[in-house]
Amino acid sequence: MKLTVCFSGLSPDPWVQGLQQAFPQAIVSAWSPGAAQADHAIVWAPPQQFIDEQPGLQTLFNIGAGVDALLKLKLPTSLKVVRLDDAGMSVQMAEYVCHAVIRHFREFDGYDADTQAGKWSYRKPRSRADFAVGVMGLGVLGERVAKALQVFEFPVNGYSRSPKDLPGVRCFSGAQSLPEFLQATRVLVNLMPLTPETENILNRATLAQLQKGGYVINVARGKHLVDEDLIALIDSGHLAGATLDVFRTEPLPPDHSFWRHPKITVTPHTSARTLREESIAQIVGKMQALQRGEPIRGVVDHQRGY
User: Can you list the positions of beta strands (E) in the chain?
Assistant: First the structure.
């Protein structure tokens, strides 16, 4: 079996070495133009040239959870695209979201401002019952986030394309239930996959349906959010603010208004990073399952986009 690694903006060498150690019976190499044909590929943002030069590929293993950029390429219909189920990302995402929710709920930004000004102050405790958190997208990451939030006794709503049943979570599904989900939510966490149907889904019309004083946490893709609509709703007072980890252009341009807005917290797409050792173990396990003719998780539906 021949494996090739094709990354853009990331060194493939540690992955080649790790895959070779974990799967010694395979031949593993980094791709370069004109390279020999491989059976399977481990990729991150590969160029179209890679796809065109590797017509014999059976499987593309994407090292990130999202595959929207990959599906924009011209892929053979027979090519199986597989995303990582978790590989250490879900616990990171749960940490990030819980931190953002609690920081907003406990008004720690306000306390920070007071302490920097040398002011000793208290704020009236808020009721968790008034801070329902809505998780948009109930895949592997979304489920983990929803479960983590319950530990802190926040009411948790969940929204997904198809029906889900999660203990302790009020679940909504389908486009027809989106308004009800939004109206029941004060803190919105976006973990939706990016597809043509979900692009720009966080816009003035949808975000305005959040409860007064709503808060937005976007950890999915920047193209889900209409930037100017978010700012307008914050400036109008309907939304209290936002924590944003993903953006339409990354790195976020220095002149973007998100940097300077006092009610927006920006982080550099770091909510959940791919962990190499865990990812390699998962990829190798899936390859071995495919060799045995067994089904694997994470196979992407080209039509749905996830």
Answer: 2-7, 27-30, 40-44, 59-62, 80-83, 133-136, 156-160, 169-173, 187-190, 214-218, 239-244, 264-266
Q: Indicate which residue of 83, 144, 186, 221 is catalytic.
A: 221
Rounded CA gap, 56 and 53, in Å? 9
Q: What DSSP state is assigned to residue 130?
A: G
Say whether 276 is catalytic: no
Which single residue is written with the structure tokens 């924590």? 243
Q: What is the pLDDT of residues 163-186, one digit of tens each?
A: 999 999 999 999 999 999 999 999
pTM over 0.85: yes
pLDDT tens digits along 251-260: 999 999 999 9
Whether 256 is catalytic is no
List the catalytic residue out of 161, 170, 269, 276: 269
The dihedral over CA atoms of 62, 68, 70, 73, expressed in degrees to the nearest 10, equals: 170
Tokens at 26, concatenated: 């395979």
Tell which phi-psi region holds residue 278, choosing left (phi > 0), alpha (psi between -120 and 50) or beta: alpha
